[in-house]
Write a structure and sequence with these properties.
Helices cover about 55% and strands about 0% of the residues. It has 4 helices and no strands. Helix 1 runs parallel beside helix 3, helix 1 runs antiparallel to helix 4 and helix 3 runs antiparallel to helix 4. The model has no long low-confidence stretch (mean pLDDT about 90).
């Protein structure tokens, strides 16, 4: 069975939830990676694909701070997906 692609709105919501700390980074990273690691998924929207890649790495640590990506990175993709707060 094919997994349904996430909509821009769903990806936007995950970005916002991570930025506002409503979702644990590990949880959203697993969600995003389930699309990135699935050969049956063909994401044709480049912005969605790149946002999924960012979300898939949301829980990666950094050597000079807690996480590799910060709130500003997630906020930039919210804008890139065409929705602003």
């Amino acid at each position: 069975m094919r997994k349904q692609l996430p909509t821009r709105e769903a990806v936007f919501a995950k970005l916002r939830e991570v930025r506002l700390s409503d979702l644990y980074r590990e949880e959203v990273a697993a969600w995003a990676f389930s699309f990135l690691d699935n050969d049956d998924i063909d994401v044709t929207d480049d912005d969605v694909w790149e946002a999924l890649a960012l979300l898939g790495a949301a829980d990666l640590p950094s050597s000079d701070r807690e996480y590799l990506y910060e709130d500003a990175d997630f906020a930039a993709f919210e804008i890139r997906l065409g929705q602003t707060s």
